[in-house]
Amino acid sequence: MHEQFYISDREAVSDAANLIEEYGSLAGKEAAARAGKSREKGNVVHFCRWRQIKRLVEWMDSGGVASSLH
Asked: Which listed residue, of 15, 23, 46, 52, carries a Cα 20 to 30 Å from 8's Cα?
């Protein structure tokens, strides 16, 4: 089974790459923390964005591509 997720824009990919560069293996936790802060502030849009970035970070950090990407 392949995990699928939505990427809203190129900036999300850039944010994910920057988190991995800055936080290494803790990048997913940092994205989750940012999502949590957004939810606490009632910002649903940023909450959803950081949750998607967390999924993207985990996928990017997994080290393998399960199928061809187009």
From this structure: 23
